[in-house]
Amino acid sequence: MKKIGVLTSGGDSPGMNAAVRAVVRKAIFHGLEVYGIYQGYKGLIDGHIEKLEVGSVGDIIHRGGTILYTARCEEFKTEEGRAIAIKQLEKFGIEGLVVIGGDGSFQGAVKLTELGFPTIGVPGTIDNDIPGTDWTIGFDTALNTVIDAIDKIRDTATSHERQFIIEVMGRNAGDIALWSGVADGAESILIPEDTSTIDDVVNRIEQGKQRGKEHSIIIVAEGVGTASDVAAAIKEKTDIDTRVTVLGHIQRGGSPTALDRVLASRLGAKAVELLIEGQQGRMVGIQENKIVHHDILDVLTKKHEICKDMISLAKELSI
Ligand code: ADP
């Protein structure tokens, strides 16, 4: 293998730049040429492809977002779109591809592998919802952003003796809500993977009031509904007024934490190593602090498991 490509796709996450840097530097270190494909699969179809040098990825390890930009591309879901993509790869002489993204992007990577094009996936998403890896690139940074925001909300919640409902990202996975809830001592955490109800939330508020606690923090993963819906449901049952905060896209941005930068560097480098070894259709990940790789199709057919012990722990510690 002499020339490889790298792209970022789907939702961006802090640390993607550190992963791009690792891919580029590791490849050049081993004598390969590297091509940056801009705007994910869209840029692959459009031929928005440029050669990257050591200096192209200088000064980006600490930056959020992705210098390669990202996009969603319906055309790539069609056979015709993918045939154009393969032609573009051939035109540039690219023989292997690193795809940094979430499960949607990996569906695309599988399709390329099925067409005989060596592709390796690197898990980059703030949701931490990819099986086969303990952590995805961006999760730790997003978590720290959420915690910083909740700490500030907690100050005003305590001063005004109010109940705050905070909506965090996580359509299918409650990791951001669960981890931030434990890290911030939230009174209630509503996530798709758990059965807690509005009645449970109300019971906790009332239990707190009985011991003189007049404020509480309730975290809602967007997958279970909006914070406004939860506020309305609480109001209907109890007449308790709540304040709603939707953290939204601030969770996606910001300078990556040290953990995310190191993870991205290790995973990006491993992806290049696998391409050099002639592997394809694999996803790199980290499990028990070891860099591993799995069949990407297996990853897509499994479901990410949330840490059940932490759900119980959160309930035990917020009595
Ligand atoms: P994420 O990677 O963050 O989960 P998306 O689900 O939006 O993001 O997927 C990113 C892109 O991956 C899509 O816009 C599309 O180009 C490509 N993709 C997703 N699913 C498929 C599929 N089944 N076949 C081919 N490409 C796909």
UniProtKB/TrEMBL annotation:
- What cofactor does this one take? Mg(2+)
Output a single Gene Ontology CC term carried by this record.
6-phosphofructokinase complex
The listed locations are: Cytoplasm
Q: Where does substrate bind?
A: T125, I126, D127, R162, M169, G170, R171, E222, R243, H249, I250, Q251, R252
Residue stretches making up the Phosphofructokinase domain: 3-275
Coarse class of the protein's main subcellular location = cytoplasm
Oligomer and partners: Homotetramer.
NCBIfam families to which the protein is assigned, alphabetical: PFKA_ATP, PRK03202.1
Protein's recorded name: ATP-dependent 6-phosphofructokinase
- Give the classification, highest ranks: Bacteria, Bacillati, Bacillota, Bacilli, Bacillales
